Amino acid sequence: MRNDLLLRLLDAFVVVAVAVAGLWAWRRWHYRSFWLVAGYPLMAVSVRTTWRKVALGCGLTKKRHRWWFTLVPNAVASTGMVKVRRRFQRIAVDTKPWMWLPRPTRYGWRVTVHLLEGQIPDDYAQAAEQLAHSWRVHAVRVSSPRPGRVVLAATMRDPLVRVDEIPPSSELLKVTVGRLETGKPWEIDFRTVPHWLNAGATQSGKSNLANALIVGLAPQPVALVGFDLKGGVEFTPYAPRLSALATSRAESVGLLDDLVALMADRMGLCRQASARNIWQLPPALRPVPVVVLVDELAELYLMADKSEKDEIAKTSTALLRVAQLGRAFGIYLFCCGQRIGSDLGPGVTALRAQCSGRICHRVNDPETATMTLGDLDPAALVSARAIPAETPGVAIVAGQDGQWYRARSFYVSEHAAEHAARMYADLTPSWEEITSGTQGSEITEADLTELIDA
Ligand SMILES: Nc1ncnc2c1ncn2[C@@H]1O[C@H](COP(=O)(O)OP(=O)(O)OP(=O)(O)O)[C@@H](O)[C@H]1O
C-alpha cells in the first residue's frame, strides 16, 4: 500500500518534471509559438484583471461619481477610498480607462486604451516606465493612432539583443540596415529622407551602420563619395566602390566645391527640361544619384588656430548648400560623428536643421543626444542615454513616419563591406564622368526635346 503510494508519487513527479522540461525546451527553441499558445493567453488575462490596480498605481484613473448600493452600510470600504454610510448613495469612484483585449505581437503584446476626460497621450508616455515595471515587461511604448486613443505596446524582452542577417536591398537608394524594436525592418530610404545625422560615442556602432549602407548601396546604380576625416582609415578600404574620397580638410574643400558645382550643373539641366528635380527627368537624361558619406563630421569644423577660419567657413557653407539643395538634384548626405554640439559653430546647427534623418547611438554627452534628437519627444533623449555599452549598434532612430524607435543595425564587418566594395567596383562611375558636365551644359535644346519626347 505504501509502496503503491510512493510509486504513484514518483510517477506524478516524473510527469511534472517532463512537462516542465518540455515547456522549458519549447520556450527555449521556439519562443514564438510558445508565446502565442501558452504565454500570451495567460498574460492577456492577467493584464485585463489587474488593469484597475495598475492604472490606479500609475495615476491613470479619474474620480467619477457613481450610485452605490450596499446591504451593510458603514462596513464596506467600497472604493478603497470612501466609506459608504447609507445603503444607496452617490460616491466618488476611481474609474479606470477602458482597455480593449491585448493582441499578441512578435515580441509581446499591444492594447488600445480609451483616454479618460482631460487625459492626453503624454500622461501615458510619462507612466510608461511604471507600467513596464507593473507588468514586468522589458518596455512599454505609447503611441496615439487617433484622438482619444492610445496604444500601449509592451515588449517582453529586449528584441535588439540579437538581430539577424542583412537582407539585400530591392529599391533604389533604400537600404535595410537593421531591425526596429517593433520587429519591423529599419530602413534608410534616401529618397524619403535625404540627409541623415548619425551620432554616437566611440565604439557605439556608427561605422558598422556605414558598413551596412555601403553593402546595401554597392550593388545599386549610385555613386558613393566619402569624406573620411580620420585620415582615410575608415573608408580607404572601400575605395574601389567610391567615386571620390577626401581624407583631409584640404581635400574636403576641393571635393565639396566639386559637389556644389555638380549641383549647379544639375540645376541647369532640370531648368532646361522644366523639371523640379532629377526624378522628373526622363531616365535617359537622369544623372546618377550621389550618396555622400561623411565620417567624423566635427573634424570639418574644429579650428586649431585662426588661419583655419576661412577654410572652415568655406567647408561649412558648401556642406550646408549641399544639404539645402541636394535633395532635388540627387545628392544625399549621411554624416557620422562622435560629437555634434553647437560649440562647433553655427554651421553645425544649420546643417542639423537640414538633416531630418536622425540616428543617435550611445553618446557620452547629453548635448550630442539633444543636438541629434532634440526636437523629438524628450523620452527619446532618455532612451538614448540609457543605451548600454554592451549592445553596440543600438540607436534611437527618428523614423520616416515622424515617430522615434529603438533599433539595432545588423552586424556588418569591415571585411564584408570591403568585399562588397570590391565585388561591385565595376559599377563605380568615375568622378570625372560625374562632374564632366555631360549632364547639362553640353546637351543642346534639340537633344533635350528629342530625349523628352522619346
Ligand atoms: N549591430 C551590431 N551588432 C554587433 N556588434 C556591433 C554592431 N555594431 C557595432 N558592433 C561592434 O561594436 C564595435 C564598435 O563598432 P564601430 O566600429 O561601428 O563603432 P564606432 O562608433 O564607429 O566606433 P569609433 O568611433 O571608435 O570608430 C565593433 O567591434 C563592432 O563589431
UniProtKB/TrEMBL annotation:
Q: Which GO terms describe its molecular function?
A: ATP binding; DNA binding
Quote the record's binding site residues for ATP. 200-207
Q: What Pfam families does the record point to?
A: FtsK_SpoIIIE
Presence of keyword Manganese: no
Q: Where is the FtsK domain?
A: 183-370
Keywords (A to Z) from UniProt = ATP-binding, Cell cycle, Cell division, Membrane, Nucleotide-binding, Transmembrane, Transmembrane helix
> TM segments?
6-26
Q: Which terms under GO biological process does the entry name? A: cell division
Instruction: Respond yes or no to whether keyword Transcription regulation is given for this record.
Output: no
Which protein is depicted? Cell division protein FtsK
Q: Which organism is it from?
A: Planomonospora sphaerica
Lineage of the source organism? Answer: Bacteria, Bacillati, Actinomycetota, Actinomycetes, Streptosporangiales
